[in-house]
Fold each of these.
Amino acid sequence: MSKWDPTQYLAFGNERLQPALDLLARIPLEAPQTIVDLGCGAGNVTRALKSRWPQAKITGIDGSPEMLERARAEAPDIHWVEADLNKWRPDAPCELIYSNAALHWLDDHERLFPHLTAQLAPGGYLAVQMPRNWFAPSHTNITEAVQSGAWREILEPLLRPAPSHAPEIYYEILSPVAQSLAIWETEYCQILDGENPVAEFVKGTQLKRFLDALDEPQRSSFEAAYRERILTAYPKRGDGKTLFAFRRLFILAGKSGTRHA
Ligand SMILES: C[S@@+](CC[C@H](N)C(=O)[O-])C[C@H]1O[C@@H](n2cnc3c(N)ncnc32)[C@H](O)[C@@H]1O
């Protein structure tokens, strides 16, 4: 896995936090005792979970030591665990499995989502948000930039098919195993400041592993090829702002049964 840079990722902290809070607001649990945050990153969303349910045992799980170091420093009272989500299995069923902007890094959602639902306690919820902006210029231009230069041979194997699917696919996957199901999408109109902010935003996530695969001077040339395309696709407006429409998918799957106090 490519290294994560918490500072670059959190440069757009408010824009990245909003969908996490929107998902949190839809969870109908009053006092869950066991909560896991899968792919918790630097822990800013995990802290929001802790604020809503201070009595709960909350575990943040992530595969990046850099992100977890930041998370631990900010909230030592939360239990932080370094682990690969592909292999994660809780010791006991969880009342809430929450995941913001992480599960699209994992493949095979046809297996993953029923597996996660099976780890819920009776009355528990699986709450997930994933980006679904793969067909917008911010993301299609990664592919175009990859294919535009001598770096193509190195970078093309890193391209993945769109990792999060259309809502109806998740309906097909989850309706046989969930007793309640809500699926929705929101396209956020993000109003950004700065020079080429869309390129900076994507550099914090999807672009990073391509940059990490190259040495200089190819790295800078590839980044310049991407940035140039993005400036054309997302021009700065007269007032200095850049609008970045970003589609996100939300899933809230509930398991029937009575929770134990
Ligand atoms: C975009 S960040 C989201 C962080 C946090 N949930 C938030 O909303 O701020 C994605 C996180 O998923 C983690 N991640 C991706 N694939 C993973 C895997 N297979 N195992 C563990 N963590 C993974 C990364 O390390 C990263 O911290």
Note: The CA atoms of residues 47 and 75 lie 7 Å apart.
Amino acid sequence: MLDLTSVPFFDNHTHRINVSDRAVTPLDLAIAFVHGLGPVYAPEEPLNSANVENCTPEYEYHVMNMGVVKVLVSLLSQKFGCEASPEAVVLERNKRTRKDPEAYVKELYQEANVIGEMADDGAPYGDPALNCFPTTVYRLFQMDPCIRALLPECCSFSELKERFDAVVREKISEGFSGLKCHLLELRYRKLEVIEDEEAAAVFEKAQKGDQNAFEDVYLALFEHALLLTDELNFTIHLHTGCTGNPNDLKSDTDPFALIPILRDRRYYRSRIVLLHASYPEVRHAALMTHAFPHVWMDISWSLPWLSLNMEQILEEVLAIAPHSKIMLGTGQHDFAEMCWMAAKVAKTALSHVLDKAVDRGLLTEDQALETAEQILYRNALRLYGEK
Ligand SMILES: [Zn+2]
């Protein structure tokens, strides 16, 4: 049996976590895993995300019965040596955070041997708020707020592009490892290459709030950023498949939507990372990494959300994606337990999947270990450089 317990884990996709002595309830912890719509009280109400305040007893019942919550309860009960109930594990967790929240988070990270976090966060580079992670922090610069802030200040598309270019250069030189964008959430029409002249022609409409015009201006800037990835040596990260936000749930976030852009020879030398394993289009994401030299993927959000399905997901991806282009991540937010469980689940699932391949004679033991290490941390360090 391949023992990966002590192999490092690089989390390719994280949001800020809370390091606090505040006692939480089982529902606080469980609802952090809901990326769906909250309960609806009346037909005329807007669709909202779920939160502890708007929960109905019926809604709470289903939240507490999500597979990911059961897995977390099981893993924490094994760690704490307590009963496997949400109440018991939360009681134990709260005891530890009340005593020393930093020490508790550090213990979780050390146990999972997390050696890096790629943080998707709006804070400036070097902001102490990101010290919430007791490990090396890599940063993504959020492209969308930057574009929205620059748009009203510019007189033309060429000025906007120039200023966007300058910001990206500055941010990468500050130390950011790449850009985060939301191209597929944002765009409602089919993706196709937008030339600068086309963006320039709709610039004023975009400034006035026209959605189609904004999409075109944004896409033209995204294409410019693709060119910069090669020159400045960085990556662009974007959600495909499940975006994580229930209000972004769209039917056209398949990673294949990017093909018209990626097939353009001008962008062949760019570097794109597809996030969230493009779930449920996992196979499509894996095939994209196979078909396009400039596409990588991570299995985040699927990890740890789809913990019960992780072996199958890994098998699908390992079958077609170069093992050198697969990374793992979480998409975690608020709770350090998410990364801890993601690392645990990933290592267990990888052991089983790779053991099976070794048993069948499809991989040697050395190859299996190499693959495990690549996916768990080496690919990320190779792509972003060791700090
Ligand atoms: Zn995400």
Note: The beta strands are 9-17, 114-120, 137-142, 178-181, 235-239, 272-275, 295-299, 326-328, 332-334.
